[in-house]
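Please predict the structure of the following assembly.
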Amino acid sequence: MGQDPSAPAAETGFEEIAIPWLDDVARFSRHLTKDPADAEGLLQETFLRALRGWHTFTPGTECRRWLFTICRNTFIQGLQSRKPVAYDAPELEALAAAAVHAGAVSSGMGDIFSRIDLGDAIKCGLDKLPEAFREAVVLVDLEGMSYEGSAQVLGVPVGTIRSRLFRGRRLLQELLLAHAQDAGLAANRSFGPLKEGT
Amino acid sequence: MNEDATMGKMLSCDKVMRQLWDYLDEELTPERMSAIAAHLSGCNRCFPQYDFERAFLRAVRSVREENPPPAQQRERVMAALRANGLP
């Protein structure tokens, strides 16, 4: 009754179009919740909501983005409160990134990201980022979404995505450089290439 | 001198630094992408930071988990969907 006749009928095509994105939504759920049990609950609720709202999905649009939006909204609704986060202008963040690079060079870590496998430290660092910044980094850097697509998932303007993304990257860099410094991974050319943990 | 190289020389280092992330994310117009690429190729001041940020992004992208959720988890989700009307 009153349903758009061009919209997919309930359940029609859901298994063919939405279910293939289950792995992607599961990964996004894990990044949001940082807890395997919570992630499974979020994943299941996301797909149940998607099934119930399947008639609102527009055929031909990006289903993954639609599912991520449902997933993120479901996650937000489950939170008691969200702490306000301060943002700087994206351009200021870009300049702050230059300061991080200068600091890395002066401490012998200008090539740290190409020289050493920091995979485990990056995963830990991502979990330490404030939620708003982590969401932006996960969507753009891990899921390969555009600024516009990420903005749609998070329901914010593109400028906000840029601010959050740039700040998130800078914070992550600072965490990684501190980790490398503490682990004694600054360059020492006389000893040749270093491997983390050696 | 080609047009991209000319545009690149017209850009200041400050302007390039302000758009470095947008450049690395390929979020700029083709003309601006070309101009910044031309600037970076000839700027000893900007290129090291570009190289640093590019290596950082590659490192971050490399940690994307490709492991699918356990089969049992997938089955539980599918069972819940079937219980709610999925054929």
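The interface with chain A takes residues 17-22, 25, 27, 48-49, 51-53, 55-65, 68-69, 73-74, 76-78, 80-81, 84-87 of chain B (CB under 8 Å). Residues 3-83 of chain B form one domain.
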